[in-house]
């Protein structure tokens, strides 16, 4: 699976390799109830093939109409560099584009030629995202030249008078430990939130009877799986097995990684007992403090679905740095 940004970058790379120029739109600023966040993208060929979204659909329709009647290209030809389009500035335009009340978008439009340089940049961006490496797209606003940077900041878009730096995000991964009912609901919600999900359980009798479409299953030892594939800042590890032989084996490796989220299901008593065991596995107090346990937000959840809601709410808050 790919994140929405990966999909767009990958499509642009493929279109450019096929010698098709591409229009690329990037949201720079929003006001009010904007449909999409800063950094969201939409890409389109001159033939009208489109991927991504910057609104609920009406701006896309307006964009395609300008593409068809030639007015979009004429705007670019007049200045020969990227330009900013402001949507929803007036109440009439908000109504015409069906933007939420008070919603405004500032969008950077780039016309990207299928040059060797641009093909190389987008191939690199696509490869870096596929390899879960931090990367940014850097655009010279004076001449439209595009480059890639190894750095990636907390802000999706940073603007100066001459440069736009757009931090790109690869697909986030979640490793679920334990093939149970809670894991099914967590997996389904995580897929809906665009995570790449893997379920690990070395107990064959559990794994064989567990299935969620779109989730990879593995019976390998959890610590090996964590070490090889879930040790970077774009990974989360969620222990749901209620079996120390599965959960603790993963946690002893996970708590030493850069994973953005590590959690374990269990009551206050179970979680306290786990914290007493973990030092015996060679973990320091600082490493153990990274563990979210009991897992999830406290919403008096009882059913597997309710527990899954609390878990994914906490994962989302940690990912966005808004955990209370």
Please provide a written account of the structure.
There is one protein chain. By secondary structure, the chain is α/β, with parallel strands linked by helices. The protein has 2 domains: 165 residues, no CATH class; 148 residues, Rossmann fold (3-Layer(aba) Sandwich), CATH 3.40.50.720. 37% of the residues lie in helices and 23% in strands. It has 12 helices and 14 strands. The model has no long low-confidence stretch (mean pLDDT 89).
Shape: elongated
Structural class designation: alpha/beta
The portion of residues assigned to helices is 25-40%
| Averaged pLDDT | 89
Which percent range describes the beta-strand content?
15-25%
Strand order of the largest sheet: 3-2-1-5-4
Q: Describe the main β-sheet briefly.
A: 5 strands, antiparallel
The whole-angstrom Rg is: 23 Å
Quote the distance from N terminus to C terminus: 30 Å
Summarize the helix and strand pattern as letters: HEEEHHEHEHEEEEEHEHEHEHEHHH
Number of helices: 12
Q: Unreliable runs, pLDDT <50, ≥5 residues?
A: none
Number of strands: 14
Number of domains: 2
Q: Any key phrases for this structure?
A:
37% helix, 2 domains, alpha/beta, 5-stranded antiparallel β-sheet, 5-stranded parallel β-sheet, 324 residues, 23% strand
Secondary-structure map:
Layout: H1 4-17, E1 22-31, E2 41-45, E3 50-52, H2 58-69, H3 71-79, E4 83-87, H4 91-96, E5 104-112, H5 116-130, E6 135-140, E7 146-149, E8 157-159, E9 163-168, E10 172-177, H6 181-192, E11 195-200, H7 204-207, E12 216-218, H8 222-229, E13 235-239, H9 244-254, E14 261-264, H10 268-277, H11 285-288, H12 304-319
Parallel strand pairs: 10-11, 10-13, 11-12, 13-14
Antiparallel strand pairs: 1-2, 1-5, 2-3, 4-5, 6-7, 6-9, 8-9
Helix pairs in contact: 1-5, 6-12, 8-9
